[in-house]
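The protein record now logged underneath.
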Amino acid sequence: MSPPHVPVLLDEVLAALDVGPDRVIIDATFGAGGYARRFLDAGATVHAFDRDPDAIVAARADSGKWPELDTAPPRLVLHPRKFSEMVEAMAEAGVAQVDGIAMDIGVSSMQLDQPERGFAFAAEGPLDMRMAKDGPSAADFVNTAPEADIADVLYRYGGERQSRRLARAIVAARPLSTTTQLAGVVRRVLGQKPGAPKDAATRSFQAIRIQVNGELDELEAGLAAAEQLLTAGGKLAVVSFHSLEDRMVKQFLREASGAGQGASRHMPETKPTFAPTFTSVSKAVRPSASEVDRNPRSRSATLRAATRTPAPYRQRQAA
């Protein structure tokens, strides 16, 4: 049987973070702990975050895999929280700054492989999709949201060009309670060609999942938290699987490094309005052909990394 989750771009993330003894690393998306295990093996202390209670429960129940939970002081600290809450959580843990932060954005393989979680359309399951197992579910959204709102989500988060037609069909098919019901509606509207490499329901499920979990807002807040927590010389590594996420990370690092200030050749040069908070911003790193062969789910992954400067973090507008 294949492992429940294979961490993507693992060696590249380790190199980007420069993981080693006595370093404090945040694994912002713990999952099955693939990154955290390698960070610990390299001698680091790891603070691991996951909003999914199943991930935290599984790690605490497997003391053989995670003996670092019981060292004195513990070298693995689990935080059952969103990564947007990193600043508050680390303050409660008595840690002001950290040496590295890894973020692996999106749904985990374990969530996709559990039909009862409702993330996948390959098997029958409740239309759920909630990473934290609380709040409104995907069924709540598709059964109660106005047709225009559903169309907007499908277009904005899924790039679905037939979003209005599809939203109309979803509303007409209410109530929808299972993954296969929703997938069936999408396939009927869009058409599912036999042997097509991509299921017609892929974009719609992705869009609804992003909406249900507020994933783009969470990413924006998590990047801001990373900027605040990283020490001078600290490393940030973000792996994303969606063009919207990657665009957000790219734009964040561009702005934080000062590359977006006064850069237009059509405008007079202006002085930066703040000291850059990140430097050494990497180009996009993608999986090798051999990694994609070993782990097809890595195909859409993109890694971006950068190094924190000594400059004060940029305060978010409170006014």
Notes: Residues 118-213 form a domain with the DNA polymerase; domain 1 fold (CATH 1.10.150.170). The beta strands are 24-27, 45-49, 76-79, 98-104, 230-240, 278-279, 302-308. DSSP finds 13 helices and seven strands in the chain. The two ends are 54 Å apart (CA to CA).
